[in-house]
Amino acid sequence: MSEGIDQATLRALLEWQLEMGADAPVGDAPVDRFALPERAPWSGRAAAPAPALAQASAQARARERPSAAPAAPAEDDPVLAARRAAEAAEDLEALRAAIAAYPHCELKKGARHTVFADGRPGARVMVIGEAPGREEDREGLPFVGRAGQLLDRMFAAIGLSRAAPDPEAALYITNILPWRPPENRRPTAEECAMLAPFVARHVELAAPELLVLMGNTPAQALLGAAGITRLRGTWREVLGRPAMPTFHPAYLLRQPAQKRLAWADLLELAARLDGGGQA
Fold it and tell me: For the chain, what is the domain count?
């Protein structure tokens, strides 16, 4: 026993060390507690490794092996599920129902309505926007807020309207996403990819002659390119149809100086409808 320290004090110090986690003595030489124990002479039977070491070894081997997880079932793959549901829809009403029943997009949980489309199916021009906003989510129709009012005025200037009964003068309008993102944020690439099969089937069933892609989101989703200022004003091909990228009306409300460029795009669209545009 050390001089000057009685047994009770030593015991109290030991108990304090135990409480602090010091549960093993320290010797004169360091001990590698992760090293394998020395093997006993072979007896024809392998000794079972310590449970912790066996678990660590298994985890290490699992990390070294490439992942071999089985493919997710079709019903758990959002894109594949959307593709199958879209392909099964034989008309627009069936497609509307398939989108409304689609369970894999989290946006659906916070939306009031599934915003499918507006205008006349069979119209020569189909407009594809980004996603519903607050007013669209409330009313269940695309482009009904301030941006929608501007869209109506823009197309009315070249003789097109969503209310026109004649397919020659009609518009058909939809969005890349049928549900409003929280706080009107921009749709993510994952959301667009998840719902792209529905958009492709929508275009196929509506069968327009020309597409108008309004804004960066539909351009990115359908052309695989961003930068609407660079893309606008030039005809592209989307889903086997001529497509004109142009500014979204909401952008034009914030940047009214760009309306002249949007007007040039509309004139190009009108010329194409009259047979005088690019081939």
Answer: 1
